[in-house]
Design goal:
This protein has a two-stranded antiparallel sheet with strand order 1-2. The protein starts with a helix and ends in a 7-residue tail after the last strand. It is mostly helical. The chain has one domain. It contains five helices and two strands, in the order H-H-H-H-H-E-E.
Length: 139
């Protein structure tokens, strides 16, 4: 069934754009913590220097450390199969230099909860590109 132009506009206006805006706001909040630019923790106006010092001391960029530590272990280095030759399957991965590019996809997936990879046809074969959840919205 083909949707009419007005139905598409209505769907975008009433559902898709608000959902995207809400998700983008959530991901921007996560991004602030991930890149270590969080909101400053508030202390009462009557807080003394020691309490302010403890607040400053307690702010540590743990999320970045967690993402980095786990992402270092997520690397596809080889493809094996006992049933078929995998050279044709592995060639697009190598041609697109995914050995080094996969880390960005893993980091985005760990930080935001998901990430995307687009695979499109190209002149010499498949073109594989990683996409952050902050750059795409899928429904």
């Amino acid at each position: 069934m083909v949707m009419s132009r007005s139905a598409v506009v209505e769907l975008a206006r009433d559902s898709l754009i608000p959902a995207w805006q809400s998700e983008r706001q959530r991901l921007d909040s996560i991004d602030a913590w991930y890149r270590w630019d969080p909101e400053k923790v508030r202390v009462p106006n009557h807080a003394d220097q020691e309490e302010k010092y403890l607040r400053d001391l307690s702010e540590t960029p743990w999320l970045g450390l967690v993402v980095t530590t786990v992402a270092q272990q997520l690397v596809a280095e080889l493809l094996r199969s006992a049933e078929r030759d995998t050279k044709a399957l592995w060639l697009p991965w190598q041609r697109n230099r995914m050995q080094s590019r996969q880390r960005a996809i893993h980091r985005a997936a760990l930080a935001y909860g998901y990430a995307y990879t687009t695979v499109t046809p190209g002149d010499t074969g498949a073109v594989i590109r990683g996409r952050s959840a902050r750059d795409m919205f899928a429904v």
